Amino acid sequence: EFRRFSLERSKPGKFEEFYGLLQHVHKIPNVDVLVGYTDIHGDLLPINNDDNYHKAVSTANPLLRIFIQRKEDADYSAFGTDTMTRKKNVLANVLRPDNHKKKPHIVISMPQDFRPVSSIIDVDILPETHRRVRLYKYGTDKPLGFYIRDGSSVRVTPHGLEKVPGIFISRLVPGGLAQGTGLLAVNDEVLEVNGIEVSGKSLDQVTDMMIANSRNLIITVRPANQRNNVVRNSRTSGSSGQSTESSLPSSTPNILGSLLQGEEESDEEDIIIEDSGEPQQIPKAAPTSESIESLSQIELLHESTQNGFLPSSEMNLNHSAGSISMEYEEPEPGPKSLEEDGTIITL
Amino acid sequence: QTVEHGFPHQPSALGYSPFLRLMAIGTRSGAIKVYGAPGVEFMGLHEENNTVMQIHFIPDQCQLVTLLDDNSLHLWSLKQHGGASELLEEHRFTLKGPPGSPPSATQVTAVLPHSSREVLYLGTESGNIFVVELPSFRVLEDRTITPEAVLQRIPEDNCNRRSCELVEALREHPKNPDQILIGYSRGLIVLWDLQNNKATHHFLGSQQLENLYWQRDGSKFISCHYDGSYTQWPVSSDNRQPEPLENTVPYGPFPCKAISKIYWQTTKNGLPYIIFQGGMPRASYGDRHSISVIHGSQQTAFDFTSRVIDFFIIFSSDPAAEFDDPSALVVLAEEELVVIDLKSAGWPAVHPPYLASLHCSAITCSHHVSNIPLKLWERIISAGSKQNIHYSSMPWPIDGGTNIAPDPPQRDLLLTGHEDGTVRFWDASGVCLHLLYKLSTVRVFLTDADPNDNMNTLGEDEWPPLRKVGTFDPYSDDPRLGIQKIYLCKYSGYLAVAGTAGQVLVMELNDEDAEHVVDHAEADLLQDQEGYRWKGHEKLKTRDGPVRFEAGFQPFVLVQCQPPAVVTSLALHSEWKLVAFGTSHGFGLFDHQQKRLVFVKCTLHPSDQLALEGPLSRVKSLKKSLRQSFRRIRRSRVSSRKRRGGSGNASEVQEANAKFDQDALQEMELAPVQRKIEARSAEDSFTGFVRTLYFADTFLRDSSRHCPSLWAGTNGGTVYAFCLRVPPAERRMDEPVRAEQAKEIQLMHRAPVVGILVLDGRSTPLPEPLEVAHDLSKSPDMQGSHQLLVVSEEQFKVFTLPKVSSKLKLKLTALEGCRVRKVTVASFGSCKADDYSENDLAVLTNLGDIQIISLPFLKLQIRYPCIRKEDVSGIASCVFTKYGQGFYLISPSEFERFSLSTKWLVEPRCIVDMPEVTSNNHVHNKSGTENAARKSSPGDCGEDERKSGRLMEHALLNDEKVLKEIQSTLEGGR
Fold first, then answer.
1. Which residues does chain B have within 8 Å of residue A150's beta carbon, measured at their own beta carbons?
2. Do B817 and A147 touch (CB under 8 A)?
3. Which numeric CATH code is attached to B1-94?
4. In this predicted model, what pLDDT tens digit does every residue of A94-126 receive, in sequence order?
5. Residues 6 or more apart whose Cβ sits within 8 Å of residue B70
6. Domain residue extents for chain B
7. Domains detected in chain A
8. The dihedral sign for the CA sequence A249, A252, A257, A262
9. Reported pTM
10. Cβ contact (<8 Å) for A170 and B678?
């Protein structure tokens, strides 16, 4: 089915609306589809969120060619670089998916089907000069593969420019995870490890922290090469970026959404072998009904919060409550805080 | 931090106050420590951290003056504050010459605190003697004694300006405070009249002067010289330039070393004690550190194990006494304090109650046992007293001050293991760390060293009559003998010690000497590992047949690990009669009742070549080779010493050793400092290294039955749990102990497991073996569910038992970047409420911080900085007690004690009062005028008047009634 319709280029709307429009236009309201478009290079690229939808609309010249496939018989291989130029008739491929059996080629999956190895996170809350990189060590056999060293960096302080000691990446091991991501480079200054600032810590301390977090390592760096920074165009994020720059070296640890999200899945489960049986993951103990214990546990969690660390269970609570805040409210001292904690746990 | 135990590192000066009966020691790092009666001690630190060169007590005052190597003088006072005395620095002062003068003009070489307590005489390198007022340190310029003034009345052909270079000694006339004796380095000695400001006598010595000493009556003095001679000079009013009475080279006729200090002590029987340092024949005994005592026909040259810093004689300080009657010789050597009883026949040594040389052989490990039952305590003391029979029974002669600290609340033992295979038992209950008993494991083994080889045995007619004194002996015959782990059960008296070559000895306390065979077993920890070659040291050879053991702890079982790697963990269960031990290859369990190996478990990863070859063989190879080469040097030195009957110079070797170490260190530092960031993996080296072993009676398999269990934690984050079946007591000898592996936990962060603990149903740590049987602990709660606490270097984790599920954790390293080095359960009592106490974890991190973490909720309670993070050996040496105190080495010879508990605090608390002079001053103050008059014109007071006045005072104060009266009026006045 071919359809042609118009969109207002300046106000494309949301992807959800567009998706609904497509279903409406084709009269397939209950069919899950994959949406793709060809960009100016002739690549077939997916449209599945607001960002790439907007990008797609902005590249229309003046027509935007959209391809729609049923999700169950979608050919993921159709997406990717050079897809249009490589195959003269991408349409035929799209429309007749059994065609590719004759010409096997590299299968490229949708992003959600990949296991991530690294990501840049918290772009919206970090200053543009900083980059927060997450290395997903779990599940891969690749070594992290980098070294750090002592060094000095220049900081802006109320007393003017000051030279302060800092920690820098000194070497990337070829073939290692760090090098493979391309997100870290030699001479990048390490500012934080898993949300904890490294300033004032020795090289050995930072080493130990990184190794202790090696299964889910989140490093905030100031890249030595500042030309590849993520450029934000929205004014609000720009200004917030500036404000965070000044507030970043604060003493209160930042509890960041993405740190929290990752915590649970990455939190390693120890393994037990009972009576020489099969190795099994050690489960979490079921929360006890004893009120004293759970209260004390919460008390403990709060204590750790002040140390800049949230255990996974509380993160979920926070997450579901939708109240991930940069500044954590300090519980009031005294028995009252226990009550307040109690309400948190009911959430 | 409460008190320092042991011997000060690098002592550099010694002072003594016969009036206060206090001794002061200064160190090269600027510390000053004052000691009196046991428990009386003070410490001060010069801000400059410069070497203390000299210490002088101000006569009849609670004050002392120190001279540092930066030429600064410091006045310290012992002041009472809040019911106890404190040592405080009051003033500091540096002598300044006229502008443009060379530094030597004011370089202080000799210090004389005058008996008037008002001035200090400072002899300098330039020959000038400056007079400074106390306590203000104001220079009284008009009273300076210049070389010109001194030379005025000396015949010119005998002297020139150079004779008065460098003042070597200043001594006040014992009877006439207006006369001082000035000794110049080149040999000229002058008796100076302070009132008339002129020299009254000249003594023309021909030899370079080292020191001077007045005889008690002031009629003669002794000078000692660089060439090893001493000279007696008469002082009489008729001859202004007397000839020497006697000039002797005691160890002549061949060239001798200098006599650097001399005492001449008179006695009732007329035979004086002549005591001097040095003077040995230069060629054959020049490297000895000796002090000779001559009394009539008796002569002994005490031969010290290290360089003599200084010495003093304790003699009658009563000014009315006619004779000196010396009672003790106190010698500060570089590595130990030696006190010789001069009153008893044979001049035996006195056992010092403090300042013990902890490092007489290097400390390799420590173990603390709190609250020793009285019975065991007495048995250890009695075993120790049999070892100490050669000591004098004289009470400790340095007995100034009063210890007002409360009695220690309990009897505590600190056990130190040493490189030479000995274990020393220290009374660690109070301020004075005191050696109770020394245990040697050497007898069990055949070593290179011949036990009968005693370098000390010298024939009767040997000359010089050297006698070795002191215990410092840092040279181990065989490094494999070194003690690595100690475990003492205070209830049963069983002791297990384990060493460098995989040896594990189980001992029992026996009050009598005994001769018996030590049962011997071998534990092959590699079992079926193929194709491996151990490149480390060989196992120790054992002595065949029965061995004689002295009273005390006597070994009855020896287990030797194969390969003979260093034992890295040890646990003893005295109730089950089991001992567990672990090395870098695995661990084993031995039944010391049936003397049977129960099982061994290899923890070695097959690919771990490093551990296969030997512990840290590659890493340590440099250090090892250095060490070995020095050991060779030492051996050759020792043997050459034996050959020529001479001696080796230990300090030289040490210096060279230190230099080599430093060079090696520098070499390493040249490499760029970068750290690899990599997750730990199962293939890492030394993952099989057994770090901790733990016995527990808990629910391992099901929640209905508890059973004995053994837990082991490795460097690779693995925890093994073995279920044990120990036969009941009546069939203990008939049925074997059985073990079966029940659980294996792998921590995914793979950090070394440093502690394992089981908490009972009340979340209280399980009691020690036999603790409940002795009614010293509640029985553990077996109703509620038990929990397992695993402490790795990075995290604390609580798991449920018997089904292992994770309950709680505290990630230390991920948050703070510090790692756990030591962890223990400590009981903290409340100092307010007697009945309240709680158990917490005391944790020492690699940054030297101490953290208290609550149980069972793993909540950080408090954190203290304790040890410098650079002080790796300090951190490694730390031991905690069960009641929140701890010890760590601040130098090879000193433990610092610290307390985390408000309740259990051991620190010095003492008072030094000046009974005589305090009341003296008060008396004078009451009368007022006399004191004032004396102050305004110190010279006016006639000698006789003062002397008689003092005698009077003394006579009065000797009368107890009068003393009490004075005291009561004083107290009434307050």
1. 673
2. no
3. 2.120.10.30
4. 555 454 444 455 555 666 666 677 888 888 888
5. B48, B50, B94
6. 1-94, 813-912
7. 2-78 (3.10.20.90), 118-228 (2.30.42.10)
8. positive
9. 0.78
10. no
